[in-house]
Amino acid sequence: MLTVFLLLWPVAAALLLHFFKGGAARVVALGAALVELAAAIFAAVISRGNVSGQFDVNYPWVASAGINFHVGMDGLSVLLVLLTAFLVPVILLAAFRREYENPSSLYALVLFMQTGLIGVFVSLDAFLFYFFWEVALIPIYFIAGVWGGERRVQVTFKFFLYTIIGSLFMLAGFVYLYFQTGPAASGLAQHTSELSAFYNLNLSSSEQSWLFWLIFAAFAVKMPIFPFHTWQPDTYTESPTVATMLLSGIMLKMGVYGVIRWLLPIVPYGVSQWQPLVLILSVIGIVYGAIIAIRQQDIKRLIAYSSFSHVGLMAAGIFSLTQTGMQGAVIQMLAHGVNVVGLFFAVDVIERRTGTRNIADLGGLTRHTPLLTVTFLVMLLGSAALPLTSGFVGEFLLLAGVYEYNAWLSAVAGLTVIFAAVYLLRMFQRVMLGPDSSFTTTITDLTGAELAVMVPLVVLVFWIGLFPNTFLHISEPAVMQLLNVVKR
Amino acid sequence: MISLVILSVFGIINLFLGFLRSNKLLLPLAMLVLAIVFGVNAYDWSLGTQSFFSEMLVVDRYAVAFTGIVVLTTLLLLPFSEKYVREGEANLAEYYSLLLFALVGAIMMVAYNNMLMLFIGIEILSISMYVVAGADKRSARSNEAALKYFLMGAFATGILLFGVALVYGATGTFYLSELGAAVANPANAEFAPLLYIGILLVIIGISFKVGAAPFHFWTPDVYEGSPTFFTAYMSTVVKTAGFAAFFKLLFVGFGGAQSFWLPTVLAITILTLLVGNLGAVAQTSVKRMLAYSSISHAGYLFIALVAFDQSLSANGIFFYSLAYSVATVSAFAVLKLVADQRQREDYDGLGGLYRTNPLLAGCLTLSMLSLAGIPLTGGFFGKFFVFSAAVNQGYIGLVVFAVVMSMISIYYYLRPVIAAYLRPLPENAQPVQVSSLQSVMLVVLALLTVVLGVLPGLVSGLL
Q1: Looking at the structure, do residues A210 and A135 belong to the same domain, yes or no?
Q2: A167, A239: one domain
Q3: Mind listing the UniProt keywords for this protein, alphabetically (chain B) (predicted)?
Q4: Chain B: nearest CA to A352, how far in angstroms?
């Protein structure tokens, strides 16, 4: 029942929010998100060391078609639920002081989206998964479209078309799998869309080969993997910071999670057929994203490309099909979520005070804002994978995983670490150090509320960096089990 | 059967109520009667199969379910005629009576067991529609629509009747069940040419009525020209009844000749999907876009006919019609309110709706998402059931084509939503006035859309 609570609580809070105005609304929203976080932590604590089948809930949903409302969590789900539950209050808090038009709708959409995200991570039924997948996407269209920047309409539209068409391919794949289950009788009730039934299908290798692309389309767009990424920098830049944080912090992980849970075990032969191609695409994405990031003038765009580069490494790690790579992807999902949200928040702080995100216009912030400087630097180093910070553990495991597959590929992928240091430190140097610019003379340091956002993120950067086993232990049995399914 | 009697009798009483010169009474009374009819119809569900007029009409669960849809649709639509009530429209009583008579026709179309009953049902429905299409006498557009609809409709009726006559000539019966046996009987092979031409003509006649391509030419003009309120009625009730009748005819009557009519129906399906979706992309008027979209939905419903699976197809058509009707009524209702008060029907006319009327913008969004078949809304499961039926019979290519078409449809369904949320308010635009009854109905429509999308099991297993 805990899973059901985690699912229904945010949406209930979102509905409730319509009865509150202005200041009260954000307090209620934040309160609800904190309750959710407490529940998620509780779930994580009691599920430690268990393999699967945690908090299973299974009701008939569309009984006439054999579709069930089946949710449950294993270690992998627990970690991602935890990440979502942690980041949503942070994101709400980040929006706290910002003047948005119609704030209660914005908060309601964020909470509504949380239900979708958690649903994606706990669904054990293909149609339920697809359903929550869309539920998580729909609010972000409105957040980006209504509260975004000047070019928001075209950008949102492009984003919408990319993601929805990707999703439809996935749906087509699921429908095909659905009809492969059970006896080929007339009457839909003979079939089932259970995840475990999909795992046990006997699909021929040519079937798997095209099913792979149908299902992978949605995940590749969402992550995004080169060359499905063209929506991403525009959307990240034009969206309000709340949406950018949601997109990069949590939604990107929907794609990674989808690959681990819904792609690898269902079409293992398909995966092994396309493994080299996907690995090469991922590595191209890593290098390409990093090089473009170096050239960026807009900080938000720079982080967008850096995120694109990092996710390429996660994809490469997963597609190495090694336990190391997989575990690296899991821990990197957490680390990246924390880092990127912190980075976007710092950019938002700078933009709000100076009115610009242009690197050339900024400089010398350090002297006026010691707190911002320190927290920003921590996020940055975490993202650049400095040892003892969050990014290091993940990138190390990911690169080790790719190395097990192919040493040369790993060497090229390893460029990400160097490149990330280049563009991040260069950006830091030009924005925070050096002489003052006309934009930065009146800047003030972080307020109490902003510190309340940054401090937990900083703590987590070090926690993941110093004690990765806290999290790795939770996901290990689940990852092992999934890999066993893949390699059967 | 009792519902037919109530509707007919009250339709006539309603005509006389028009003499009272008090329009305020008409709307609540008509809604009350529809609510009673809905209840009576629901009661029929428990009675099992009953037959009337020496089995020419058979009220079984299939008929009851589809009657439920058309009555519910009318009931939900009625409050949006409030403008006519307020302005003291002189012919309001007649309009309501025509709608009730049209319902009688629709119910006969879903409950027929004899091709003559089908024909009479279609005619009762059509003739009422010819009149209401021209309800706006002062508008040249409306007059043109009525004339076009009448001429095309009369033509289609002729074809249909000719087809029925040929089928009778070949099989010697009007009764569906006997027809089914006769069509399947190889002893009748010598009459096959007669029968086949008859079947083709009947299919063409009904395709005209439901607005499927290539017999759709009247649809955009008539939908655009008719007053929005009646357009909504046409594109929901007429279509639902048409498909319910079509399904029964093909399955029970012509099931034995499936291999013969399948290529025709398949061609109509593909053409309809193509014309409806591509046509809708090009439109600048929201109403015309909805007209083309209604053609495309005929195409999706046709897929269920192609699939030819007793339970899956019936279920698919039922669920799809219900989800489609609810979403369409909601879309047209919002469009009517906006168009009446802002005097424009293009996309930009919806601009800024979210700021002035969040409820209208929300309902519009939900209905568009449902028509586009996006999860959380009834339209998703509608498409799911229809496509499943087709996939189950191995029509993978057709379903892929339909999915591509619905990807295109997302483009044009999103345009009104973008306009409502992201485009600026048109100059001098006031908030749209919505009465409390209309608000309630809009909320009910939105809830129905979501309930169908979240808990489809409530109705998907009925048939």
Answers
A1: yes
A2: yes
A3: Cell membrane, Membrane, NAD, Quinone, Translocase, Transmembrane, Transmembrane helix, Transport
A4: 23
**Closest by Cα among B10, B223, B1 to B100:** B10
Domain boundary among A207, A242, A266: A266
Residue A52 has pLDDT above 60, yes or no: no
**Taking the CB of residue A57, how many other CB atoms lie within 10 A of it?**
16
Structural domains in chain B (count): 1
Q: How many domains does chain A have?
A: 2
Which residue has better confidence, B23 or B350?
B350
User: Is there a contact between A130 and B457 if contact means CB atoms under 8 Å apart?
Assistant: no
Write out pLDDT tens, residues B288-299.
Answer: 999 999 999 999
Cis (ω within 30 of 0) for the bond into B220? Answer: no
Q: Which residues constitute the domain of residue A320?
A: 267-488
- B391 interaction partners in chain A (CB closer than 8 Å): 175-176, 179
Kindly list the residues from chain A whose CB atom is less than 8 angstroms away from the CB atom of residue B376.
Answer: 131, 134-135, 138
Q: Are residues A401 and A482 in the same domain?
A: yes
Closest partner CB to A172 (pick from B403, B411, B456):
B403
Compute the average pLDDT of residues B251-266: 88
User: Alpha-carbon distance B389 to B377, whole Å?
Assistant: 19
Whether B254 shows a pLDDT value over 70: the answer reads: yes
Chain B hits for A187, Cβ within 8 Å: 311-312
**Is B43 a member of any domain?**
yes
Asked, for residue B206, whether it belongs to a domain, the answer is: yes
CB of B377 within 8 Å of a chain A CB? The answer is no
pTM, two decimal places:
0.85
| Residue at token pair 């003739």 | B127
Of A266, A295, A319, the last residue of a domain is: A266
SS3 content of chain B, % helix, strand, coil (to 5): 80, 0, 15
- pLDDT of residue A188 exceeding 70, the answer is no
The C-alpha atoms of residue B239 and residue B251 are separated, in whole angstroms, by: 18
Q: Does A130 contact chain B (CB < 8 Å)?
A: yes
The answer to whether residue A419 neighbours chain B at the CB level (below 8 Å) is: no
Same domain, A414 and A426: yes
ipTM computed for the complex = 0.77
pLDDT digits (tens, 9 = 90+) for A231-241: 888 888 888 88
Partner B contacted by A135 (CB < 8 A): yes
A135 to chain B, closest Cα gap in Å: 7
Band of the pLDDT at A55, cuts 50, 70, 90?
Answer: confident
